[in-house]
UniProtKB/TrEMBL annotation:
Described function: Claudins function as major constituents of the tight junction complexes that regulate the permeability of epithelia.
UniProt family annotation: Belongs to the claudin family.
Signal peptide boundaries: 1-25
Gene3D superfamilies: 1.20.140.150
The protein, known as: Claudin
A molecular function (GO) term: structural molecule activity
Membrane-spanning parts: 71-89, 109-131, 151-173
Membrane topology: Multi-pass membrane protein
Chief localization: other
Alphabetically ordered keywords of this record: Cell junction, Cell membrane, Membrane, Signal, Tight junction, Transmembrane, Transmembrane helix
Any one GO cellular component localisation term in the record: bicellular tight junction
């Protein structure tokens, strides 16, 4: 459930346009228009409540950190989707696939590994974007501080999603039982050695 919640939160973070938002720091606070930017679109929210959004039309004109975050988020969602399928097949309460508990536990562990990788990809995407926002906020520039960008709510959703995915994947990875060798050990009777000893 934790891994599934992390995947849903990662999907929500990928769709939300609030990866960075207008900063309201400084003396002159501008509240008439609030700007939000995400991986797929940029939005402007008026003080009257009207919101206008525009999709990023050109892929190649985007900054490198946005393209990289996009790729990592898409990879994360794909890994999480396959992790859900593999984990459901490997759960003890499902009747899908083989009934061998060892095989099912191995599938659950494989799903857990996929969830951990998914969480790490989400963490990398969000952290990379946050690093760029921090760099642009604190670098020396002629842009006033209240016209710069700071962390948006989608970044915090992404960090939470990564934590849940890694936690759920780790719990699934720990569900692998120890191999039982009972009844599978063959006892060999001791036979007199016929090999010659060489000095």
């Amino acid at each position: 459930l934790a891994a599934l919640a992390g995947w849903v939160a990662a999907l929500a973070a990928a769709v939300l346009p609030q990866w960075r938002q207008s900063s309201y720091a400084g003396d002159a606070i501008i509240t008439a228009v609030g700007l939000h930017e995400g991986l797929w679109m940029s939005c402007a929210a008026q003080s009257t409540g009207q919101v206008q959004c525009r999709l990023h039309e050109s892929l190649l004109s985007l900054d490198v950190h946005i393209q990289t975050s996009r790729a990592l988020v898409v990879i994360s969602l794909l890994l999480g989707f396959f992790g859900i399928i593999v984990s459901v097949v490997g759960m003890k309460c499902t009747k899908v696939g083989e009934e061998d508990p060892v095989t099912k536990s191995r599938r659950a562990v494989a799903g857990g590994v996929l969830f951990v990788l998914s969480g790490l990809c989400t963490l990398a995407a969000v952290s990379l974007y946050a690093t760029q926002v921090t760099y642009e906020f604190f670098r020396e520039s002629t842009i006033p501080i209240n016209a710069r960008y700071e962390f948006g709510s989608a970044l915090f959703v992404g960090w939470g999603a990564a934590s849940l995915s890694v936690l759920g994947g780790s719990l699934l990875c720990g569900s692998c039982p120890a191999k039982e060798h009972r009844g599978q050990q063959y006892h060999r009777q001791s036979q007199p050695s016929t090999a010659r000893e060489y000095i």
